[in-house]
Each structure stands twice: as structure tokens, then as C-alpha cells.
Design a protein that fits this description.
By secondary structure, this protein is an alpha+beta fold. Helices cover about 40% and strands about 20% of the residues. A three-stranded antiparallel beta sheet has the order 1-2-3. The radius of gyration is 14 Å and the shape is globular.
Length: about 140
Amino acid sequence: MMYSEKVMDHFTNPRNVGEIEDASGIGEVGNAKCGDIMKIFLKIEDGIITDAKFNTFGCGAAIATSSMATELIKGKPIEEALKLSNKAVVEALDGLPPVKLHCSVLAEEGVKMALQDYYNKRGEEMPEEYRPRCDGDCSGCGV
């Protein structure tokens, strides 16, 4: 299985690892099939994601996609982060082997879960078309 240089770089030198103490939103997703668990923390001020950190327990692709996802949304308005797709994460990493594509779905869903948490904490409704498609447990989703 061949990984791109970008995947290897984000795996060996992941960006934004850690936790945000007073996070505006926290998303946690896991895939029971492969054992990957991802937790993403967002700091949001005036509708802008000012910081994003993650902790991921999993394979190199799971760590690389988490790292890239945080890089793609940092400094962006919530509206832009809501549109983050696993396809965008994979493209930014110059591709992933087909057997590892589920890792990029975890990254997308983790960000969406964190944004859902942010909306919930504010007592607001998240736009329906961007709501997470899952409850964070991917064991039955077949991705």
C-alpha cells in the first residue's frame, strides 16, 4: 500500500495535535471495524474557527486525515467548515489507498460532530444539510 508524501508528512508530523480546554465544540467519532477513534476540538469566535486540535488513536491514514482536516478548517468561517468533505480531505492529501478512504469519512464526520456540539451549546439548530450522518459510531455504517 503506497501513501503519498503528504499523507506520510501529516502522519509523521501531524499538525494541531492536542486538546482545547474551553473548546466551543467537541466531536468524537470511532470506527469499531478498524479501531480508529478521533476526537476533534474547535475554538470558534465570531463565527470563525480560530483553533482546531485533535487526538486520534488509529492508523497512519486516520492521523493524516485528522491533521489535514484541522488544517483545512482553521481560520475559516463555520459556513465553510460545514462544507468540508472527505473528498476534499483526500484531495488535499494527494489521495489515499481505496482501503483507507473510510478514514477521511471519519475526519469529515468528526468536524461535523464538533460543529453540531457547538450549535447545541448555543441552543441553535445546525443547518440540516450539514448535520452529521451518524451518531459517532461507524460500526454499522459500512464505510
